[in-house]
Amino acid sequence: MSKIPIAFIEIRLFAHATEDSNKVTEAAKQVFPVDYAEEVEFKRTNLKGHYGNPILLFETRIKEGKIVSAFVANLFSRINVMDKEDLLRDIRLHVEKRSLYLRLDKQAALCEEIKLCMRDPIRVRIQFKKGGTEEILKICREFGMLP
Prior knowledge:
Layout: E1 6-16, H1 21-29, H2 34-37, E2 43-48, E3 54-62, H3 65-78, H4 81-89, H5 91-94, E4 95-96, E5 99-105, H6 106-110, E6 121-128, H7 133-142
Antiparallel strand pairs: 1-3, 1-6, 2-3, 4-5, 5-6
């Protein structure tokens, strides 16, 4: 592909009071290619949980083409085949309005593994420049995101 069909990538994750916020951001940076991990800046927002417990929200948006391309290539080369098959099977649950939504295991990322999960995830939104579900499926296959 000559021009990347992705507008931006958004990453969000929470650090609960029982977690080390530095380890949480380190886990998120493990999802990035080594060459770009230190370039990523996370905005930090202080929140309160239901019972008044402190929660930190970390979020970033990546728009630069070379980082977006490297991120996508790195992410999907590291996701195992079973997770890719699960994603393909449930793709309609992950695609909405030109975006592909993924939830990555925060604990696994800290151990330099990339796995899909549902609980306490690193939330990744890949916003495509155009297309519905079928177009996004085609692009994802071209990038090796799906089998």
